[in-house]
Structures are given as structure tokens and as C-alpha cells.
Amino acid sequence: MPPATRKILHVDMDAFYASVEQRDDPSLRGKPVVVAWRGARSVVCAASYEARKFGVRSAMPAVRAERLCPKAIFVPPDFVRYKAVSRQVREIFARHTDLIEPLSLDEAYLDVTATKTGLPSATATAEAIRAAIREETQLTASAGVAPNKFLAKIASDWNKPDGLFVIRPQQVLAFLAPLAVGRLPGVGKVMETKLAALGIATVGDVRARSLQELEQQFGRWGRRLHELSLGIDNHAVQPDRPTLQVSAEDTFEHDLTLDELEPHIRRLAEKAWAAHEREAQSDHGRIARTVVLKLKTSDFHTLTRSLTPSTRPTSALELADLACALRARVERPAESRYRLVGVGLSGFVEVDSFIAQRDLFENPPG
């Protein structure tokens, strides 16, 4: 389907984990709920809208959330329940289209250019999905309707919670122009600062600059900025997105040095390898070639080191050995301490493709 004719939804459950807790425990309704384990090492998984009024946000250290909202009710996360509700929601999506791209347990893109239901418009489809979610899960969802993915995601956040917002093709340019440039995907705080130094604060400011100037300043990213300012995004909804990485990580009660991390790395390698084996045995049948070590320092800086060995790891033990060896590539003082370590595998390829390439390398023709 040509990008110009697509009809895309972005559906986002409202304060999902916290809303599930409030649904299942009526005593929590209307109160500031923080889904997190208590303690100095914990981070917030989700916050109810009542807690958000105090500035509590996901990924915030739990101790900071408690300072911001002393009356917050902390509830430990129950991912088994959240996944069960997420499956319910996905089943509702699937009644309307097979083109579903999940982003997490609580949000997804849907291509509803052509639907199974024959509803007259993308807006009607979004309304039907939201109504079914409310009726069948007793939860609310917000939705954005737009000609492409990045606009649909902006739209779903426009009338939260429990809202619907539509950006029609003829409205795109006028809608985007006054938005802060930070609303564009890929424009984080660092890029926002660089753009501000050039006098670019809004999407309209980006559009006013020539493509040539943006490319001179930012290379290929300059072209992407130019396209986004015009509302152009040709990325299609990708059902059953292939796994990019499997990993396991842990936050410690007390910060550790690099030398003290080995037993934790080996334990996490077992978990990451088990996830990798499930991927290899699934319908996707894919295996990974790259080992990743992730560290978070005591002052919250995140470091990653990766290695693609000539021979891919074939066991949890090999994965652990390679991940431990990656510590030697961390160029920090020996006394540096770390609050988190993670072990992962990435660089996935199809099993059949990998075997064919290996055989060709080991047994070249002639």
C-alpha cells in the first residue's frame, strides 16, 4: 500500500500496570499508586495519573518517587497479570487487522487501511477498539489516528487519558508546525540543544531550513529531520517484529566493582541463554552472534560493550566467558563501582542462513 494512503493507529493503554492494580483492588482507585518494589535500588515501573500529578514517572528511582509523593501506595509489579491483560488487548486488535506491531505490553501500531470488520473509517475502528477494551478489560486506552506511524504516536498522547485524536492528511503540515522539535522521534535532549543553538525550536523552524543546510549540519539525520518536519514517514507496520536482542539484567543492593561482577554475569548469562534457546526453537528459528555486556555506574551512567566472535557462543558457559572477558574493555578506574549489570545476545540471523554461510566458509566450492 503506498504510504500516502495508509491509515495507522497507535493504541496506548493508560497508565497500564497501575490501572490493572487499581482495577483489581478497588481500595486503590483514585489514589496515587506506584508500581515498584520499595528500596534504594528499585525503579518505578508505572505510576497512576494521581501519582503523576506529583511528578512521579516511569523509570524514576523509587526513593525519588517516594520523596515527590510521600502518600504514594507502592505495589510490587505482577507481570504475569499484566501479560494476561495484554493478550486480551491483542486479541481485540486482531479482530480488526492482522497488521499489528506491538511495541510493549501496553502499546502497538495497527495498520487499518483495510480491516476485517468493514467499518467505514480508521476513526470508527479506533473507537470500536477502545470500546471493546473498556468493556472486556475494564481499562481505558488512548488512540491516535494518522497517515503514518510517528504522527499516530504523537496523536495517541494528545488527549490522554482515555482519549482519541485524529490527524487527517490535509491537517498534517498545520498540525506539526507549532510543535516543539522535541516531539519528533529521535530528537532527544542533546539534539534539542544542538537545534536550539541554531535557532530551531519548533517543527516549523526545521521546515524553514533547506534540506541542504540540514544535511550539512547533521548528515543523513538532517534528511530525516527534513522529512519528519513535512510529516513524511514511510515505515510500514511490521507484524511479528523479529527479536533484536535477548538479555537479563540485575540491580544490586550495594554497588560492586568490576572484579566482583563475575558470579552475577554468569548467573545472568544462564537466563539470557535460556531466552536465546526459546527464540531458536520458536517459529522464527533465529540465533544470535553478538555478545553484549551492559553496566550502569554508581552515578547512573550506562555503558555497553559488545563482541561478535568468529565462532558464535553455543552454550551459556561460553556466553558467560565472553561477557566476563568484555569487562577488560571497560576503560574506567579499577575502584569504579556499578549498580547494575546485564548480559545479552544480539545480531540475530536465521538458523538456515547461518548454517549455509558457515558451510560455505568451512567448505568452499572447488
TrEMBL record:
Give the protein's cofactors: Mg(2+)
Recall the GO molecular function terms of this protein's record: DNA-directed DNA polymerase activity
Q: Does this entry carry the keyword Transferase?
A: yes
- Entry note: cofactor: Binds 2 magnesium ions per subunit.
Q: Name the positions where Mg(2+) binds.
A: 12, 106
Can the keyword Transferase be found in this entry's annotation? yes
- Write down the chemical reaction(s) this protein catalyses: DNA(n) + a 2'-deoxyribonucleoside 5'-triphosphate = DNA(n+1) + diphosphate
Keywords, comma-separated and alphabetical: Cytoplasm, DNA damage, DNA repair, DNA replication, DNA-binding, DNA-directed DNA polymerase, Magnesium, Metal-binding, Mutator protein, Nucleotidyltransferase, Transferase
Q: For site (Substrate discrimination), what residue positions does UniProt give?
A: 17
Q: Where in the cell is it found?
A: Cytoplasm
* Residues of the active site: 107
Family assignment from sequence similarity? Belongs to the DNA polymerase type-Y family.
**What is the protein's given name?**
DNA polymerase IV
Query: What is the source species?
Result: Dyella koreensis
